[in-house]
Specification:
Lipoate-protein ligase LplJ, BPL_LPL_catalytic, elongated, Enolase-like, domain 1, three-stranded antiparallel sheet, aa-tRNA-synth_II/BPL/LPL, single chain, ligase, 354 residues, Octanoyltrans_LipM/LipL, BirA Bifunctional Protein, domain 2
């Protein structure tokens, strides 16, 4: 028995859009048609790709679909701007009913200055609301009025932070709900945003692919302010002059995705090195010998005030996606404050990994 026609799309990072229209008949792919703005030689290779997918199990993995395409294509076929895996992802997104960016309307909140620990707590409050249908997808900037080291959910306080030096500078340590590395936050030194989207937006993507997919907009926004940036797996954003920032994610049980990014604007690297322990192995992994090179301030590359970057990034995001302006509700702020008092400021949470 045939299901209604399905469509899936996938934009290759740094490449082209791949679209697949198909039906499912008796648990197998049928009437498959691949299209897109990619380049392909020879012309009849497209027929071979469609034929390779025809009859494949509807639950076939991306790897299985890509292998079927490779087995069918002649050795002289040239796929430019896409690859068999991209086609497989588009198929999986069609089968699973993935949403595209144009299917979403983001509730957008510009930078609002507050205790940064409240922003950490809001990264628990807002995903819960998106998951429950209280809010639609959310995009929000952070801004803060005091210093803070925000460590990843699974990091050791002892290994990541020199607490004596942190106390010397009046810098508190807070553990967030996402994994990844430490964020060294002083007033005005970083640009941080959070995005909360339904899991169906990243359907068919691996974790690594979802980072690149969700960060694609910011690469365009950085180009608008004069920074030639690229995505570096697993979760880094870098320019020609070094690393700019990194991303972290958390998935809720229903698939809702919290994705946030911190980019350095103008960091006091010497103070950061006193407070945050950055091991030689980690620096070597990034191909640098000093923290100063590893943290590449956006101010030096853009020549723009931080507020101007906020303004331009917001304008770029709103121009690219469907958006409505929003703000935090009193109930959200009250719940965030409650979490600060009962979770994020408690030693039980902070030192759960000592």
């Amino acid at each position: 028995m045939a299901e209604a026609a399905l469509r899936g799309e996938y934009k290759v990072r740094g490449g082209k859009l791949v679209a697949v229209d198909l039906e499912i008949v008796d648990g197998r792919l049928a009437r498959v048609h691949v299209s897109g703005d990619f380049f392909l030689e020879p012309d009849d290779a497209l027929d071979e790709i469609n034929a390779a997918l025809e009859g494949q199990p509807a639950n076939a993995s991306v790897a299985d679909l890509a292998a079927a395409i490779r087995a069918r294509l002649s050795p002289d076929a040239r796929l430019i701007g896409f690859d068999p895996e991209a086609v497989g992802i588009a198929v999986r997104r069609a089968v699973r009913g993935a949403l595209g960016w144009n299917d979403l309307t983001f509730e957008v909140m510009g930078p609002k200055v507050m205790d940064p620990t409240l922003h950490v707590a809001l990264d628990q409050v807002i995903p819960d609301e998106v998951s429950q249908g209280v809010r639609g997808p959310v995009f929000r900037f952070w801004d803060w009025d005091r210093p803070l080291v925000v460590i990843g959910s699974f990091q050791s306080v002892r290994n990541e932070v020199d607490e004596a030096n942190a106390r010397k500078y009046g810098i508190k340590v807070v553990r967030r709900i996402t994994g990844g590395g430490a964020m060294f936050m002083e007033q005005g030194n970083c640009i941080t945003y959070s995005m909360v989207v339904p899991g169906s937006l990243v359907e068919g993507l691996s974790y690594e692919q979802s980072y690149a997919y969700l960060d694609d907009w910011v690469l365009g926004a950085l180009a608008e302010v004069g920074v030639n940036a690229t995505y570096k797996p697993l979760n880094d954003i870098a320019s020609d002059q070094g690393k700019i920032g990194g991303a972290a994610q958390r998935r809720l049980v229903d698939g809702t995705v919290l994705h946030h990014v911190t980019m350095s604007y103008d960091i006091d690297a010497d103070k950061m090195m006193e407070v945050v322990r950055i091991g030689r192995e980690k620096l070597s992994d990034k191909g640098t010998k000093s923290a100063n090179k590893r943290v590449d301030p956006m101010r030096s590359q853009t020549g723009l005030p931080r507020d101007e970057i906020f303004t331009r990034f917001l304008a770029y995001f709103k121009n690219r996606y469907n958006c409505v302006d929003s703000d935090y509700t009193p109930e959200e702020m009250a719940r965030a404050q409650h979490l600060v008092d009962t979770k994020f400021n408690t030693p039980e949470w902070t030192y759960r990994v000592p």
